[in-house]
Specification:
The protein has nine helices and seven strands. The protein is α/β, with parallel strands linked by helices. Strands 1, 2, 3, 4, 5, 6 and 7 form a seven-stranded mixed beta sheet that branches.
């Protein structure tokens, strides 16, 4: 169990799942730069959080709900949590699936929904972020949540996410890794890949220039022989 002062943001976990170096540049070195995509994403989250609560017959919607998990050492805010009223038959079979809500009768099943501006990314960083929110909700409400959703603005559709044992395990391992790296306080080295092209910190990271020991060794060797000056060896 972690203390309140040791809690780290769920958003940092999402950055870590995408790229450890991106996490270090943002959360250790304080480097951040906006591009049209990140600004549009910020506006989307602001609109979602300020849309207010909704209440229908068998549905309650909470926006901007504060989250925390002392077990994983995480804190954050959910874009949307939908609470759906459970039938009496389902409550009898799975009472741990629902939670009570102030001022209304019955048990309600929570489902987190995270809003994203673009389209699904390479890897599972968005799913990890949503699963981390779910683990926080489960700890706070004493329930078991089976699924949630990611809403992507580019396609204007939801993608259902099932919180199976593999995704839960990956999320918990990354939460532990997040705390280990935070204590170490060192930005991880770069590794160039396809996802680098979509990163807003590409110009700060320079993964092609600084990534890989062999590339640096070749560059240094070329410097000593003058090959760089002759245009025979470059870092890129």
């Amino acid at each position: 169990m972690y203390d309140e002062d040791d809690l780290l943001p769920i958003s940092a976990l999402q950055h870590l799942a995408f790229c450890e170096r991106q996490w270090g540049l943002i959360h250790l070195e304080g480097i951040w730069t906006d591009n049209p995509l990140t600004v549009e994403g910020q506006h989307l989250h602001e609109r979602v959080h300020h849309a207010g609560r909704e209440a229908r017959c068998d549905l309650r919607i909470a926006r901007g709900l504060r989250l925390r998990s002392l077990r994983l050492g995480l804190t954050g805010k959910a874009d949307v949590v939908e609470f759906r009223r459970l039938s009496e038959a389902l409550v009898a079979k799975q009472p741990q699936a629902g939670t009570s809500l102030p001022g209304v009768t019955g048990l309600w099943e929570p489902r987190p929904v995270e809003y994203k501006r673009g389209r699904p990314k390479l890897g599972r960083c968005d799913e990890v972020q949503l699963c981390a929110q779910t683990l926080c909700l489960e700890e706070m409400l004493g329930v078991t949540i089976g699924r949630g959703a990611l809403f992507y603005g580019r396609s204007r559709r939801r993608c259902e996410v099932v919180f199976d044992s593999a995704l839960r395990g990956e999320t918990e391992r990354l939460a532990l890794r997040l705390h280990q790296l935070s204590r170490a306080g060192q930005t991880p080295p770069p590794t160039y890949g396809r996802k680098c092209k979509s990163c807003s910190l590409l110009s700060f990271c320079l993964p092609k220039v600084t990534g890989g020991r062999r590339r640096v060794e070749r560059y240094l060797a070329a410097m000593t022989t003058g090959a760089v000056g002759e245009g025979k060896e470059t870092m890129v």
